[in-house]
Amino acid sequence: MSTTKKFAGALLVTALGITTLGACGDGKDEPAAGASGAPKSKTVTLVSHDSFAVSEPVLKEFEQQSGYTVKVLKSGDAGAALNQEILTKGSPRGDVFFGVDNTLLSRALDNGIFTPYEAKGLTEVKPEFVLDGQHRVTPVDSGDICVNYDKQYFADKKLAPPQTLDDLIKPEYKNLLVTENAATSSPGLGFLLASVGKYGDEGWKDYWSKLKANGVEVVDGWEQAYNERFSGSAGGKKAKGDRPLVVSYASSPPVEVLYGEPQPAEAPTGVSTGTCFRQVEFAGLLNGAKNEAGGKALLDFLLSKKFQEDMPLQMFVNPVVKDAKLPELFTKHGVVIDKPENVAPDTIAKNRDQWVKAWSSLVVK
User: What's this model's pTM, rounded to 2 decimal places?
Assistant: First the structure.
């Protein structure tokens, strides 16, 4: 998921565990006569992780044009939200689910929680993001999980920041990196998959053995890693974090600029561009949705240029639609990752659990 999306979520959401957020109006259904004369719901419910956000004017325009009122049901992090939908398969809590990414996509598809629907605008999506030929899910955004570095630390030490995965195991970077647990964190899992993509199924374990020997620190989640242990973030500075390298997102530097007090002319953090894993997030029409028509309209909206261009400064992710433009904050302070590591979704599906188990035994225990 995840941005940096998780940083944005921490700032945009006042508290975790929010249940239902009425995006506009009182959220009550407004009956309207359907073709059969039965009441037709005018409320469409989006189930998502806690980091979903859209600006009020953009959402209001959709509601006015479509006639639907949108309710957003936030359900924790991406993994927890997906697990709840699997448990309620066939009797979903909403109409559309947003937030399943390519690391967990197979779990969602194998459990049959989505109804196929080819969203309007899908032909304008970059082909590399369309990972399900049956259109059970619609790609909505992408982001890169990457190591971030504290520019001031490396300038003071007169040390070049690491740029590749290979660099991270060099002696000069000993005891500098903090990462998230691959078993409990989306960016932690993404970083593990970056090593699998780079070194293969036979080589990633040896890499992590060397990384462990070089003093990598593992914490439960992104919030702790980025806002407590990382010395380069605003939160990390306040918490006196002493790790100048952290696994986060390529979009983290623009976030540091946007929320800096005062706002800095340059981002205080940088991105190690050779350490990245490409994350793609999807939305899908839930199997058994009470408002299927509204769900389809909402999926169409998520691919609209209006939403795609609003999304970067709301969730700190990249659009997937070809002609959607990035805001100046991204183009000035962000980086483009030309060659992220990738692992095919079916390969992740076959090996994810055993990779995480082996990683836990090797690195955590």
Answer: 0.82
